[in-house]
Design a protein that fits this description.
Elements: E1 7-10, E2 17-20, E3 26-30, H1 33-39, E4 44-48, E5 54-58
Antiparallel strand pairs: 1-2, 2-5, 3-4
């Protein structure tokens, strides 16, 4: 039997919960100006998952990428032509 990686998370207020059932494609720590502005911090850490393995357990895609209640920025879709695994 093969173990499947499972990652769970959500926004700060709990309005959105997500689950990824796959190993991340990659993990990134970025300090470019866009990531610094996006996070309000000197660096931004994030992971890329295959979109087919990402599921919303709570909330809707209408509330993403920015959760209006708490201001959390959760998801960013990377275009296939701009990303090479």
């Amino acid at each position: 039997m093969v173990d499947t990686a499972k990652f769970e998370g959500g926004c700060l207020c709990g309005a959105v919960r997500y689950r990824a059932i796959a190993a991340p494609i990659r993990a990134v720590i970025c300090h470019c100006s866009m990531c610094r502005k996006h996070s309000g911090a000197p660096v931004l850490a994030f992971v890329h998952f295959p979109i087919d393995f990402l599921h919303l357990d709570q909330g809707t895609t209408d509330t993403i990428p920015i959760i209006e209640i708490c201001g959390t920025r959760l998801l960013l879709e990377v275009w296939k032509h701009a990303y090479h695994a």
